[in-house]
Specification:
This protein is an alpha/beta fold and 407 residues long. It has helices at 27-67, 74-81, 85-103, 106-126, 143-146, 167-180, 192-204, 226-230, 243-255, 291-304, 324-330, 332-336, 342-346, 350-356, 380-384; strands at residues 132-134, 212-216, 235-240, 260-264, 277-283, 305-314, 364-370, 397-404. 44% of the residues lie in helices and 13% in strands. The radius of gyration is 22 Å and the shape is globular. It starts with 26 loop residues before the first helix and ends with a strand.
Length: 407
């Protein structure tokens, strides 16, 4: 719980260039964050591999000897692994590292929250880059957002503690930086997913030279802002239900000189006119939603796209594109990371959902694209030509599903 004390003015404008400069962990706090990063990496690499070895060398052969066949799916492997000591230890360490990842940011945010809020207010008044922020105080936060702390983030995505709050935006961003420090397949570019999708779109759809872009579930816009680099002159829009994240994203964009337009909306029903956008994107968004909400959002994507436009959503690979072990591994988050819709989403027929939303089946696509922050870009033409595959999702590549809208 954030316990900031708002008893003093915070004349910080002119003293710092970015709201992130106000995140000032002590030596001990930084050391703790580094430890958590290493611990999480250990769980997701060494402990993961030990768990897989236990399955391959003992549990899988025993199962096949008893049943005469492989485990049918990830759920069956999970039942098989429940009493395995390697699985138990992996789960304990990964769960607690995930919790500590965000908790490690709370003290630095609490100390400087008054200054952060004041800085965000000043930037919002000045709007040096000409962007905008539209908030809706009466917006009803969907229960699938408000009822639990998704990702084990204290306060979840949306909670507000003080007027004009930015805390959850900062907590999620800097907690994510602790996470990225633990991932050997990504560098520290926090917009790497957006940059990778944007670059792929620029190569596959060169006619979209100065597009109007909409990012769903944008949070602080970290995967929206790279579109300004890949598509000079693009008009960038991001929607989310989280007011603190949007305030934080708005001030970051303005301080970077990037004109972006943030609005607090439920993506199931947005107020933009029909045919407002050339590109609609999202990142790690749909698996946090019930399928009924996914259907409504995809219908909104179809409504909002102009003819010739494209939607491209970076998501977890569906179950039918993964083997049973990988499904077991991916679906751990559903039960242990407060992501209850994870498995249901991954079991869906994505093409069928797109067709229900109004897209033609022949215009639907799935692909995995290289992460441009780690990929050897001299090899990108070979990837586009189909001569080489992108790295696996989460290990240097990103899975995308999407569709174009008939011109």
């Amino acid at each position: 719980m954030i316990q900031a004390e708002f008893t003093r003015a915070s004349p910080v404008r002119g003293q710092i260039s970015s709201i992130d400069d106000l995140f000032r962990p002590t030596h001990d706090e930084r050391t703790r964050q580094h430890f958590i990063s290493v611990l999480r990496n250990y769980a997701k690499s060494t402990m993961r591999d030990a768990m897989a070895q236990s399955y391959e060398e003992k549990l899988r052969p025993d199962y096949m000897a008893r049943h005469g066949s492989e485990p049918a799916d990830g759920a069956e492997i999970e039942r098989l692994m429940e009493d395995d000591i390697y699985y138990k230890m992996y789960s304990v360490v990964r769960y607690n590292a995930q919790r500590m990842m965000y908790q490690s940011t709370l003290a630095p945010v609490e100390r400087e929250l008054p200054a952060m809020v004041e800085f965000a207010r000043e930037i919002a008044r000045e709007r040096p880059a000409g962007g905008s922020l539209r908030l809706s105080p009466t917006l009803e936060i969907p229960r699938y957002v408000s009822r639990l702390d998704v990702h084990l983030i204290p306060g979840g995505f949306h909670t507000e503690y003080v007027p004009d709050d930015v805390a959850q935006g900062v907590i999620i961003d800097f907690g994510g930086r602790v996470s990225r420090g633990a991932n050997t397949y990504r560098n520290k570019d926090s917009g790497g997913v957006g940059r990778s999708i944007a670059y792929w779109l620029s190569q596959k759809f060169p006619a979209l030279a100065q597009p109007d872009v909409l990012d769903l579930g944008t949070q602080s816009g970290k995967n929206l802002l790279p579109y300004a680099d890949v598509f000079p002159g693009a008009s960038m829009h991001g929607v989310d239900v989280s007011a603190p994240a949007l305030r934080y994203g708005h001030v970051k964009a303005e301080c970077q000189g990037r004109r972006a337009h943030f609005s607090q909306q439920n993506a199931e029903s947005m107020d933009f006119p029909d045919g407002s956008f050339d590109i609609i994107v999202s990142s790690f968004f749909f698996h946090e939603l019930p399928v009924a909400a996914t259907r409504r959002i995809l219908a909104e994507c179809h409504r909002l796209l102009r003819p010739g436009g494209v939607m491209a959503h970076m998501e977890l690979p569906p179950q039918d594109q993964c083997d049973a072990w990988l499904n077991f591994y991916w679906d751990w988050d559903a039960k242990h990371n407060n992501e209850p819709f994870y498995i249901d989403f991954r079991s869906q027929d994505l093409a069928g959902l797109a067709v229900e939303a109004g897209f033609a089946r022949e215009d639907f696509f799935t692909t995995t694209v290289p992460d441009v922050t780690t990929f050897e870009m001299s090899r990108y033409p070979a990837f586009l030509a189909g001569e080489i595959d992108a790295p696996l999702h989460g290990r240097g590549g990103w899975f995308i599903f999407g569709a174009t809208k008939h011109a």
